[in-house]
Structure formats: structure tokens, C-alpha cells
Amino acid sequence: MTDLTTAPPAAVSDRGFDRVLQFEAGSHAVAVRNVPGTHAWFATHFPRRPVLPGVLLLEDLAELAALVCADGAREWRLSGVRTMRFRHFVGPGDQVELRVRVTGAGADSRDLRAEARVDGRTVATARRLTLTRREAP
Amino acid sequence: MRFHLIDRIESWEPDRHITARKVTSVTETTWRPGPDGPELPFGLALEALCQTGSWLFLLSTGHRRRAALLGVDQVTEYGRVRPGDTLRMSADVVGRHEEAAVLDGTVSVDGRPVLRAEGIMCALIDAERLDDPADTARMAEALLGGRPV
User: Fold this and answer.
1) How many Å lie between the alpha carbon of A48 and the closest alpha carbon of chain B?
2) Alpha carbons B17 and B12: distance in angstroms, whole number
3) What is the extent of the structural domain holding B70?
4) B118 in contact with A at a CB cutoff of 8 Å?
């Protein structure tokens, strides 16, 4: 169920998210990224068992986290990860629900908890993603 | 584009240590825009390190076991990777069991660390489930012998 507390930036759809289910700037977001079988990485990861690389889940969570933290002229970039766990493989046809929530803030940093789910099952978690602020390109 | 983020294995000691490198090019499609130009995403620098560790276990087991990433305790980025940089990955095994292993490692560019990961946990699974053994052998030969993959 879509619950847009505040309108997500147009950039959400430009960054590879296929649906935005919840978005509250500075607080949290839930977005969906579909994983079609046409994904280029599947040819080599792996030839006999296509699996979405776990680091790409991490990148998606970080991308969504950066959009939640976005504050105009500056952008936020992943600079640290604590306690990341990959619990199940993600493969062709899966629809990954990405969830991030801000848990702490410093002058130039934000901490977020993150989770990825497929069909309601948790496939990956990060206890803490740290994003740091810098000038936008 | 292939998800092979390692080009050469430079040294390895079974079940203990490995060093490898990956060259980068502006022609690759993996760059993300940054304030000072394109930069390699955090996750792909981490992946280069994880693939280096996976090759250590492929080589150490005669290509029978490949590492599947289960988690990582801590990853910290110290610098950016730019097009044209050469990544040098160095990984040390800090725990090893029959079906699982833990590594620590660093990715460096020109001698400066750009990413450090501690507690990389992986399951060591049957390599034949994921790839044709003949292809794995050819890749190993190329990585070790310097022939193009």
C-alpha cells in the first residue's frame, strides 16, 4: 500500500527503483526494485545459478538511504557499513522490497538501519549504514 | 558486462592469504558521478575484495569450493577510486572451517587504502553448482598466468 508521507524526489525512479511505497524525507523509505532475468550480471554471476550479487543489494539500500537523507545542495554517500548479513539468495523474477530508516545523525553524517525483503522474507539486513555529506556534483 | 572484478592474482598462500589486482577504465559502465568526476561505487570495491577471497578458496580447494557471501561485520571507505586506477586487493583468512570462512581485507590504490573490510563471512559451497568446472579452470589459468580471460 502506497504511503507517501512526503513526495519522493523524482530521482527515486531515476536511480533504479521501480516502486516507492513509503517516503518521508529525513526519516525512512520503502521502495521496490525488480530483478528481471535480463539483468546483465546474471550471465557471469553465476552461469549455473543466477544470483543477484549481495553487494548490489547493499548499493540499492545505500542509494535509497541517500535519497532519504538528501537536503538540497549536498549529497550523501555511503562511507561505512556495520553488521551486514545476507540470509537468502535473490534471483531472476524476484521483487526486492528495500527498507531504510534513519537511526542517528551527526553534523555531517547519518546512520540508518536497512533491510531487504522478498515476498515478505528478509533476505538481507544492515544494522548500520553510515552516510557522509559532501558537495553535490 | 561481466561481473568479474579481478584481473590478476599476484600471490596466494593456501587458506591463508591472497593478493590480486583489478585495472579500471573509463570505458566501464560501473562509474557513478561524484563531485570530482566518476567514482567506483562502494559496493563494487567491496565486491572486488570478496571475489579475491573467493578465488583464494577456489585455488586452495582445487576449484571444488567457491565462497558465497554471508555477511560482513565492518566496512569503511577511506578514499575514492577513479577511472584508470588500479585496485590492489589483499585478504587474510582469520577463520576457516570445512564449510565456512572469515576474512579481513583491504583495497588500495597507489599504496593508499581506499576500503577496509573486517569479518567477511562466507559459506564455502560446491563450485560446480555455480559454474562449469572447465570455465573455472580456464579463468584460474588466466588469472594466474597473465593470459587474457
Assistant:
1) 5
2) 5
3) 8-145
4) no
